[in-house]
Prior knowledge:
Helix content is 31%, strand content 27%. The protein is globular.
Amino acid sequence: MPIIIPKDLPAHEKLRTENIFVMDTVRAVTQDIRAIEIAIVNLMPTKVETETQLMRLLGNTPLQVNITLINTATYTSKNISAGHMQRFYRSLDEVKDKKFDGLILTGAPVENLEFEQVAYWEELDRILDFADKNATSSIYICWGAQAALYKYYGIEKVPLEKKLFGVYPCHSVVRNDPLMKGLDDTFYVPHSRYTGLNEKAVYNCKGLKVLAVGEKPGLTIIKSADDKKFFFTGHAEYDRDTLKREYLRDVEKGLDIEPPENYFIDGDIDKIRMSWKSTANLLFYNWLNYYVYQVTPFILQD
């Protein structure tokens, strides 16, 4: 089944050429089916790339998925046209009375700031309250995961000695959790961050359950005890060349950055080993199936 997005959204043509089943909103209303409603709160500066990455994964299921893109009204992105944001995005105030089957909050390049120093923190605090009350299940990614863990459980982030940057092996620490169904004993996830989590606080929190860890990245996937919140500290959604583009960007800025680990083949930046594609597809497929579709009410509105 398709994801439902406007025909003029840049991701539409990109995904269509990849044989991802997309459907425009005009055609969707003629089908007698209740689509799964998913909100994407996109905090990344690379708006179009992130939209496409997440929609690609959400389109890899038998479900019809209707996408609502949400942005922060208190902060204007400098890397995307105002026309794109006005055409395709909604503010919290515009969706505050709507219910969603699922919600995804992306990362953001603000991890070296204290949470309260982030320009849109007060609005994000309200968005997290909204997600808790109005979404059946939510995924929080990278800094988004850190922000949500801080908001909901008081878990602090901690600085790393240097940027965790590369693709790292991870493994499940639980048996038979539906989110991990089909994953290999060892699977790979890209990471790109300067901060980690207070892992002791996570393990001591009765409201949280660790699902996957890695020797280098540490806690990789965490969920809430009620199965409503999922925290991904890495970026399984990344494209093949996303880490390459981040690396070249940082080099151009003159930052002290090493090449991403376990990524370039024989150190050649034109040869990339993509080892996480199946992991990404399974994680989002399993989330949509087991933690959204099978538990969400047929009628979303109260």
